[in-house]
Specification:
Blueprint: E1 8-9, E2 12-13, H1 19-36, H2 39-53, E3 59-61, H3 63-69, E4 73-78, H4 88-101, E5 106-111, H5 115-127, E6 130-136, H6 137-142, H7 144-152, E7 156-160, H8 167-181, E8 185-188, H9 198-206, H10 208-220, E9 227-231, H11 236-242, E10 252-260, H12 271-274, E11 276-280, E12 283-287, H13 312-319, E13 323-329, H14 330-344, H15 350-364, E14 371-376, H16 384-390
Parallel strand pairs: 4-14, 5-6, 5-8, 6-7, 9-10, 9-14, 10-13
Antiparallel strand pairs: 1-2, 3-4, 11-12
The protein binds pyridoxal-5'-phosphate (PLP).
Pyridoxal-5'-phosphate (PLP) binds at residues 86, 88, 115, 191, 231-238, 304-305, 349, 351-352, 377-378.
Length: 394
């Protein structure tokens, strides 16, 4: 069972944080382990996932995408149908409930595109917890709609003006806040990144995707799928759908990163495909770095994948070869966005569009009797103005 007691996935993970945070991480680790062994807590998470989020999300066949790819039969795990339009709510809701159980009265979070910020603002509104979201000022400008969604649900959005004014800087500020506020505050990290126990805890909370998917495959297809494909930013939707299949050696697991506009430094966000081990935001993992070991600038058309690191468990899955990692470029994702909308009547998130591109390539090389599942991590309504701009329509 990974991670070990020190939060290590093979050599990756761990805790590279200032001493002031070690006690808080220990407290969180203890609280989480107690909660996950408590039927009342698990029952409450389960009830909210059903009644508030609308789970289980459907597993549906994609007939026209299947015909287009011309290989494996393609199925869709519909996380886009979850409340707020993406998988992030699964983790936000469960962590907010854990914070309440720990007696914390305030929640802080970082957000890039604003999707995690909206999910945590939603959960905090539902439970009546004070919510404070750190966001780079560059992202605040680019993501006006999500900033308003957070504010309308009562969250405070704090603009971060340091560094590149994006997600990485917002994360630094949130960690700084937590160092001075751990007494009454819980920090909700939005992906399977950060110091132990976050990568384990977020994976566990997102694993509801894979558990449902596995049971739905057995029920609707009559057997396990031959391949499962997900996009990889920090890696939470991927870890969530992969984890329950990891011991099923017949199931290929494929993660698709953001290949951006080129393979040159600063032009992509493919940490596993093109990065090297390093420390970022409290854990050891594959990171995009410059020649001096400094975190590199990144680019992706999709704000949710625009992050220089990735979860430590994915780094371990890469080295142990349990998961295959590939990259899709901005152009390939943009094409997949339009193709999927036309063929299936579902406008996917730009993040998800990377997985769709990868899935078409993988499915095409598989026999027709085989099956492949795409994790549709989110809906694309949030991306339509950006896509219009990229297509030169606005
Ligand atoms: C945030 C986001 C992602 C990327 O984050 P992961 O932690 O890698 O899942 C992917 N898809 C959608 C819709 C997102 O909002």
């Amino acid at each position: 069972m990974v991670p070990d007691a020190a939060g290590r996935f093979g050599p990756y993970g761990g805790r590279y944080v200032p001493e002031t945070l070690l006690a808080a991480l220990d407290e969180l680790d203890r609280a989480y382990r107690a909660a996950r062994a408590d039927a009342a807590f698990l029952g409450e998470v389960d009830r909210l996932l059903r009644e508030f989020v609308g789970r289980p999300t459907q597993l549906t066949h994609a007939p026209r995408l299947t015909a287009h790819a011309g290989g494996a039969s393609i199925w869709l795990k519909r996380e886009d149908l979850a409340h707020t339009g993406a998988h992030k709510i699964n983790n936000a809701l469960a962590q907010a409930l854990l914070a309440k159980r720990m007696g914390k009265t305030r929640i802080i979070a970082e957000t890039g595109a604003g999707q995690h910020g909206v999910a945590i603002a939603t959960a905090c509104a539902r439970f009546g917890i004070e919510c404070c979201v750190y966001m780079g000022s560059e992202d605040v400008r680019r993501q006006k709609l999500n900033v308003f969604r957070m504010k309308v649900m009562g969250a405070t959005v704090i603009e971060v003006d340091s560094g590149s004014k994006t997600l990485k800087d917002a994360t630094n500020e949130a960690m700084r806040d937590w160092m001075g506020s751990v007494g009454n505050t819980h920090y909700v990290i939005g992906s399977v990144v950060g110091p132990h126990p976050f990568p384990m805890m977020v994976r566990d909370f997102q694993s509801v995707i894979g558990r449902e998917c596995r049971a739905q495959c057995l029920e609707k297809i009559g057997r396990l799928p031959d391949a499962v494909v997900a996009c990889i930013g920090g890696g939470s939707n991927g870890a969530g759908i992969f984890a329950p299949f990891v011991d099923d050696k017949s199931v290929r697991l494929i993660g698709v990163e953001a290949g951006g506009r080129a393979n040159t430094p600063g032009d992509h966000a493919a940490a596993l495909t093109l990065g090297a081990p390093g420390v970022l935001h409290g854990s050891l993992s594959y990171v995009l770095q410059d020649g001096f070991g400094q975190t590199a600038d990144v680019h992706s058309c999709s704000a949710g994948l625009d992050y220089p690191g990735v979860g430590p468990e994915h780094s371990w899955w890469k080295d142990s070869k349990r998961v295959e990692y590939i990259a899709a470029t901005d152009t390939e994702a943009l094409d997949a966005f339009q193709l999927f909308s036309r063929l299936e009547g579902i406008i996917p998130a730009l993040e998800t569009s990377h997985a769709i591109h990868g899935a078409i390539l993988v499915a095409r090389a598989m026999p027709r009797e085989s099956t492949l599942v795409i994790n549709v991590s989110g809906r694309g309504d949030k991306d339509v103005t950006e896509v219009m701009r990229l297509l030169g329509l606005s």
